[in-house]
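Same chain as my last thread, 142 residues:
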Amino acid sequence: MINRRWHSSVLDVRYFRGTECDTDPYFVVAKVRERLAVSKQAARNFDVEKFNLRKLSKPEFGKQYQIKISKTFAALENLNHGEDINRAGENIKGNTKTSAKESLGLYELKPHEPWFNEECSRLLDQRSRLKCIGYRVKTKST
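reply #2:
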């Protein structure tokens, strides 16, 4: 009744007698597991460098970045005009990234603290001990 590819998705199948439909006297009811596909963007590994753009709001970093960018574009003007446009685009991209990395630095994420720490563990142990004591008191009194 089902393709071999989807046989692991079927959880439960039941049929019911009693109602007469034109050709098939049995109703078939099935529970099927739905699997949603992960988007390609979420599945990709993000190893993209993020620059600390907040430093641009400070005038000294903004000037430093502006000077480095102008130097790299001045160097690009000396290139041959017959050069491949894709290579020129890659040069612009690479030079912009290196100047941003040198002047702004990379953005670093704050490390997240684990939500389950020693205090949580201690409270769970205390709770389980109190439950055991309460259970013992109830069983002794009855």
